[in-house]
Amino acid sequence: MKIIIDGKKIDTEGKDTILEIAKKEGFDIPHLCNHSDLCVTGSCRLCMVSVLGRRDYFAACSLYPEEGMEILTSNPEIEKIRKINLELLFSQHKEECRDCVWEDKCKLLELAEKHKVKVDKFQDRKRNYPIFSFGGIIDFDSSK
Ligand code: SF4
Ligand code: FES
Fold first, then answer.
1. Which CATH number is 2-74's, of 3.10.20.740, 3.30.70.270, 3.40.50.1010, 3.40.50.2000?
2. Where does ligand 1 bind, in terms of residues with CB under 6 Å?
3. What pTM was estimated for this model as a whole?
4. Which ligand 1 atom is the nearest neighbour of the CA of 107?
5. pLDDT for 37-85, tens place per residue?
6. Distant-in-sequence, close-in-space partners of 139: CB < 8 Å, separation ≥ 6
7. Atom of ligand 1 nearest to the CA of 95
8. Mutation test of ligand 2: which of 47, 71, 82 has the most ligand atoms closer than 8 Å to its C-beta?
9. Which is the most buried residue in 2, 45, 71, 72, by most CB within 10 A?
10. Are 86 and 117 in contact (CB under 8 A)?
């Protein structure tokens, strides 16, 4: 089937999501919660795209192509949505970057900088959520 992403005509078999197709074609759609080893949750809402002829915005990680679909990966409205969603992520995220293993390669900070998000905007709403330990090997800090 044929689809168009940001004006580029693409042939696809239709098995991949729009995010996967866009990645293969070299488009940079921001995404945090999508990983090939995990099931799709569509929770970060950063990969939003618009589809020509449809009113809503869609998470590219859970959107599958349809014949003739025309996708836009960026416009002022999409960027605004991404910025708001990033701000919401930071409203529940403790940036204790100095002690964080991700400090030098943090995708979240990279996106915050790119979208000019003030990471401490919601300082008053940040809480210490519990840390869960899985088998003594993995710690999940739910404040991050
Ligand atoms: S994951 Fe959070 S705490 Fe760690 S470097 Fe990124 S913003 Fe800082
Ligand atoms: S990558 Fe998180 S919602 Fe799509």
1. 3.10.20.740
2. 93, 95-97, 100, 102-103, 106, 108-109, 144
3. 0.86
4. 6
5. 888 888 899 999 999 999 999 999 999 999 999 999 999 999 999 999 9
6. 131, 132, 133
7. 3
8. 47
9. 71
10. yes
